[in-house]
Design goal:
Blueprint: E1 3-6, H1 16-33, H2 44-50, H3 54-70, E2 73-77, H4 84-93, E3 103-107, H5 113-124, E4 135-140, H6 147-164, E5 172-176, H7 181-190, E6 193-196, H8 210-218, H9 223-239, H10 242-256, E7 261-266, H11 272-286, E8 294-299, H12 308-313, E9 318-325, H13 352-369, E10 374-379, H14 384-405, H15 415-426
Parallel strand pairs: 2-3, 2-4, 4-5, 5-6, 7-8, 7-9, 9-10
Antiparallel strand pairs: 1-10
Helix pairs in contact: 1-10, 1-14, 3-8, 4-8, 4-11, 9-14, 10-14, 11-14
Bound molecules: 5-phosphoarabinonic acid (PA5).
5-phosphoarabinonic acid (PA5) binds next to loops.
Length: about 425
């Protein structure tokens, strides 16, 4: 078993409520797996794990490798589910200090004026040897009409044409729906290479399609291991769904008791962006009908010195989900110091990971004693297969939990409200 969820720490907070909530989550789990719940037409993210398309994964892997070898910079254009998964996996599995291959930059997830202008200037700057940077673009938009990435793509494809001329079309890869949307029109007009996002896969469930897999492969990460980590987690869950149904049941019972916020916390700096992906997956799936736990990402120890006070002593409406890693492959050992002026020799001989683990255990204990129900999900180690497992775990958990709430996990009608108001202010025809 590659993932382990310890929810025993929640039991002091849940007594009579738990049994009924777990019954609900077992029903919800069956609905999800038999495609009989709300939004069955959006279940492609499970289908693709049950019937893997190895030829497609190989094609994406080959292109990713080619970009990895040839690019200095890959700009990934997308917003929400169209970029958060790739960012989460790349940040989890490649250190910014030793990352090989292209620099991976993200654009089109906001409309920062200076950000996009500076990005174009940065791409134009020659390399140290005076030569032009080798830049590739991967534009990702399922609808093909979302304003933020569409605007960034307009600027960046113009820059690509100005810089590489006709050859720019070999450096631009588009990922979108099989048909429809402005992006498909551009692809047809320009002849860009295209990958499809199946209609049955929503953005925040799309990281294991070319949406996430291409940028991840371009970063040099083994996408086969990532994908098959998810496949094997699905098999584990089907063999024994109790971990998922207990976890979803606890969350549901806590929500019904009046808890309002789920703090997604990790002491592993590599998992900060993974928290960002989880935040979108959970937030956009469950924030409906005035229900749901507001997911907030906390990066520990950093945030213990900014939000720790609020968690320990603020309004008692928070629960906490820790993501922990059990082992490290390359431990960093604290050395003894002859003078010991800093008084840290009591830590000599221990690994930073051991010390970090004690920080996690101490923080969890203090928060639980302070009245915050907390559970922990342990990964044996941080590698592509375990991250694949974690992705699938949270996708299934989200589906089950949102079914418990009586909502459709796969739509996001509320996101349209800001678009409508913004387009009206912009005078969109
Ligand atoms: O999860 C979702 O479906 C959304 O977050 C979308 O990914 C996001 O709105 C971007 O949409 P699109 O890919 O159509 O540009």
């Amino acid at each position: 078993m590659s993932l382990h969820t310890d929810w025993s720490t929640l039991t002091p907070f849940l007594r009579d409520e738990l049994a009924g909530a777990i019954d609900s989550s077992m029903i919800a789990y069956t609905q999800l797996m038999t495609r009989t719940g709300l939004g069955p037409e959006w279940m492609g993210w499970l289908d693709l794990l049950e019937q893997p398309n190895d030829a497609l994964i190989q094609e994406v892997s080959d292109l990713g490798r080619a970009i990895h070898a040839d690019a200095d910079v890959l700009v990934v254009i997308g917003i929400g589910g169209s970029y958060l998964g790739a960012k989460a996996v790349i940040d989890a599995l490649s250190s910014p200090f030793s990352r090989k291959g292209p620099e991976i930059l993200f654009a089109g997830h906001h409309m920062g004026d200076a950000y996009h202008r500076d990005l174009l200037s940065y791409l134009s700057e020659p390399k140290a040897d005076g030569s032009q940077k080798s830049v590739y673009l991967n534009v990702i938009s399922k609808s093909g009409t979302t304003l933020e990435p569409a605007l960034a793509f307009r600027m960046l494809k113009t820059w690509m044409k100005d810089t590489y001329g006709e050859a720019s079309r070999n450096r631009i890869i588009a990922t979108t729906s099989p048909s429809g949307g402005a992006l498909n029109k551009i692809i047809e007009a320009e002849g860009y290479r295209k990958f499809e996002i199946p209609d049955s896969v929503g953005g925040r469930f799309s990281v294991l399609t070319p949406v996430g897999l291409l940028p991840i492969a371009a970063a040099g990460i083994d996408i086969q291991s990532l994908f098959y980590g998810a496949v094997s987690e699905l098999e584990n869950i089907k063999r024994d769904p109790s971990t998922i149904t207990n976890h979803a049941g606890c969350r549901y019972a806590l929500f019904r008791k009046g808890y309002a916020i789920d703090l997604i916390a990790s002491f592993e700096p590599e998992l900060g962006s993974f928290g960002g992906w989880m935040q979108q997956l959970m937030g956009e799936s469950e924030g409906k009908g005035h229900k749901g736990l507001f997911p907030a990402v906390l990066r520990y120890s950093t945030d213990l010195h900014s939000l720790g006070q609020m968690v320990q002593d603020g309004v008692r409406n928070q629960i906490e989900t820790f993501i922990a890693v059990k082992g490290v492959t390359n431990p960093f050992v604290v050395k003894p110091d002859a003078g010991n002026e800093d008084g840290l020799n009591y830590l000599a001989g221990r690994t930073v990971h051991e010390i970090n683990t004690k920080a996690l255990e101490g923080t969890r204990q203090a928060h639980i004693e302070g009245g915050v129900p907390a559970l922990t999900i342990y990964l044996d180690q941080l590698d592509a297969a375990h991250i694949g497992s974690l992705i699938l775990y949270f996708e299934v958990l989200t589906g089950v939990y949102v079914y418990c709430l009586g909502e459709n996990p796969f739509d996001q009608p509320g996101v349209e409200a800001y678009k409508k108001a913004m387009f009206s202010l912009l005078g969109k025809p």
